[in-house]
Specification:
It is a single chain. This protein is an alpha/beta fold and 308 residues long. It folds into two domains: 184 residues, P-loop containing nucleotide triphosphate hydrolases (Rossmann fold, 3-Layer(aba) Sandwich); 102 residues, STAS domain (Transcription Regulator spoIIAA, 2-Layer Sandwich). It is 32% helix and 27% strand. The protein has nine helices and 17 strands. A seven-stranded parallel beta sheet has the order 3-11-4-10-9-5-6, with helices on both faces. Strand 5, helix 2 and strand 6 form a beta-alpha-beta unit. The radius of gyration is 21 Å and the shape is elongated.
């Protein structure tokens, strides 16, 4: 299943139409963006991005004020000690004051020079590719911070392109950005929007965690052979006092057995924890209405229903 098929694609940015891609499918030349809604989302995207680089012959350069052993997802998710990687220069963690500081101020052009030097070093040594992680949260809500981040993005864009062997991921904690206009400007400056890797993908059914809203995006087809993995995914995302949204916009088929399973799961959840069905296709909505599934206890119709 192509990562560019699901519903969040089509946001127009500085480069044209943005593509949403799982972190594990980022490609050389990608200049990607993550605005994380939840700490777990950041752990999974940033952690997997760094881990994939360390697990291959790629140098990883992290622009962050976080100590190497506190990089998101390294220990909690992947259970690795990063010290051997820093000692071998496989992982480079550069504080922002060193990456872009020039004459006592933050200079995006200095950042460009720093990154150019790091890429030159990576490619002149044994590394076949490089990954750049830029945690820009610190600048998100300071005076002039958005303009600074856009200028930094421009410096990175000049280094990261289709002909390079580098991937860049710019990340910000969404809760630190108070201005929706600023968030849109930053997001639209990137041609790739990155998300967590799917919980499950066998080419027929893809299930991906979502964080705004909390739940799962279901794409493809659910038949009897996939009931167990659906049950496991629902159990994973269910948590006390939280609704679970199921994004159905690209779910082409679901059998009656799976609908029955969803209904049983919704009834088992504690009060206030029901399943919310968002954006069913016309055909799927017709099936749901025909069997009366939308009337089951614990099932709520969310966004995108054609008639209420």
């Amino acid at each position: 299943m192509d990562a560019t098929e699901h519903g969040t694609i089509g946001e127009f940015g500085a480069h044209g139409w943005s593509t949403v891609r799982p972190v594990g499918e980022l490609r050389p030349g990608d200049h990607a963006w993550l605005a994380s809604h939840h700490p777990e989302e950041k752990e999974r995207v940033v952690g997997d991005f760094v881990f994939d680089g360390l697990n291959t012959a790629q140098r990883v350069v992290c622009l962050t004020d976080v100590e190497p052993h506190r990089l998101p997802g390294m220990y909690a998710r992947h259970h690795i000690d990063v010290r051997p990687f820093t000692e071998a220069d496989h992982l480079r963690v550069i504080p922002w004051r060193l990456a872009c500081g020039r004459q006592g101020r933050a200079d995006p052009e200095q950042l460009g020079r720093t990154l150019e030097r790091e890429l030159d070093r990576a490619f002149s040594e044994r590394f076949r590719a490089a990954r750049i992680l830029a945690d820009m949260t610190w600048a998100a809500d300071v005076p002039g911070g958005v303009e600074f981040m856009l200028a930094c993005d421009g410096a990175m864009e000049r280094l990261i392109g289709p002909s390079t062997r580098a991937i860049a991921l710019c990340q910000v904690d969404l809760r630190a950005v108070r201005s929706a206009d600023a968030l849109n400007a930053l997001r639209n400056h990137h041609e790739v929007l990155v998300e967590v890797n799917p919980e499950y993908d066998d080419g027929v059914l893809r299930m991906t965690r979502t964080y705004a809203p909390h739940g799962l995006r279901l794409e493809g087809e659910i038949d009897g052979a996939r009931h167990p993995v659906l049950t496991d995914a629902l159990t994973t995302v269910s948590r006390p006092r939280a609704e679970v949204h199921l994004e159905l916009g690209n779910l082409k088929f679901i059998d009656l057995g799976a609908l029955k399973m969803l209904g049983a799961h919704a009834m088992e959840l504690t009060r206030g924890n029901g399943l919310v069905l968002d954006n069913p296709t016309p055909d799927l909505e017709g099936v749901i209405r025909m069997v009366g599934f939308h009337l089951f206890p614990g099932i709520t119709r969310g966004e995108g229903w054609r008639s209420m």
